[in-house]
Amino acid sequence: MPEVYLYPAIEPYESHTLQVSDTHTLYVEESGNPNGIPVLFIHGGPGGGTDPMYRRFFDPSQYRIIMFDQRGCGKSTPFASLEDNTTEHLIDDMEQIRIELSIPKWHLFGGSWGSTLALAYAESYPQHVSAMVLRGIFLCRKKDIHWFYQEGASHIFPDAFETYSHHIPVEERHDLVFAYYKRLTSNDDAVRLEAAKHWTTWEMATSKLIPSPELIEKGVDPQFALPFARIEAHYFVNDAFLDDNELIHYIDKVRHIPCTIVHGRYDMVCPVSQAYELHKAWPSSKLIITPNAGHSATEPGTAKALVAATDEFSNI
Ligand code: STX
User: Contact 271/278 with Cβ under 8 angstroms?
Assistant: First the structure.
């Protein structure tokens, strides 16, 4: 059970509603020690939202844990909105949160899309980052998106892939991300929801080495699936609003920052070669490959390595 390795469940000591644009308002919360080391938790998707469980990767006596729901998801509003929703907006939002909370420097903790956004933020504002813990590295290049949504993971999970791809008529299957994006932005609520459920179930079915029925059920929960699928597809038809290989290209900007990378050997959403490539471009980072895990943050070996990494950085 991952719970064994995680810190006890805690409640926030404060939460904020932060207006970041004419339309968008973000949910931001703080938990742990108000005088501790500030750490920003950056969730995945994009569009995945935060979960109270994520507070448990940090020693609450050492860390001031800051979590926020990115534009359009979780408790941020408007729900599932794609308007003014780009990587650059999210980077600016993180800066606004830092300034609002009067934090000169903070740690970043991000998995999957959270690792993408952590790198993108750190490469823009390296002077405000003192340490990074990254998991399930997602470099978000065309080939990384193609691997998961078009062909690659399809060879390991042909059964789940059939359910995902067969939602789209055969003549549109050569570009599944675009075909889903069209449906996820349809004017018909029922069309959007059906597409969201199929898209999200594919990701939930492939995220763990041993698939979890609980996680798969999340794939059909409209409250989770709609923003998750819509925001992901919107980012991915736009190449995540990044130049191809941009994150590796600007790695010099963050080279001096202490960083631990944790990645499951059998990650089918983001193959471990992405973590390996990042580590090769950034040799002073520490790479830990969990031998018996997939993509999820909560598989036991990965959860244990993540907690060890935040413990190790609790004196930086
Ligand atoms: N998306 C990868 C990602 O960031 C391609 C991700 N996958 N699952 C998640 O995030 C949740 C943990 C938020 C469900």
Answer: no
Cis peptide before 258, with omega less than 30 degrees from 0? no
Comparing CA positions, the residue from 257, 316, 258, 270 lying closest to residue 297 is 270
Q: Can you tell me which atom of ligand 1 is nearest the CA of 46? A: 4
Q: Over the range 204-242, which residues count as b (16 or more CB within 10 Å of their CB) and which as e?
A: bbbbbbeebeebbebbeeeebbbbbbbbbbbbbbeebbb
Any ligand 1 atom below 6 A from CB of 45: yes
pTM of this prediction? 0.98
Distance of CA 126 to the CA centre of its chain: 20
How much distance in Å is there from the Cα of 187 to the middle of ligand 1?
A: 26
Give the model confidence (pLDDT) of 189-234 as tens digits: 999 999 999 999 999 999 999 999 999 999 999 999 999 999 999 9
Identity of residue 30: E
Ligand 1 site, residue 271, Cβ cutoff 6 A: no
Residue ranges and CATH numbers for the domains of the chain are: 3-140+241-315 (3.40.50.1820), 143-240 (no CATH)
Question: In angstroms, what is the span from residue 179 Cα to ligand 1's centroid?
Answer: 20
Residue nearest to atom 13 of ligand 1 (CA): 48
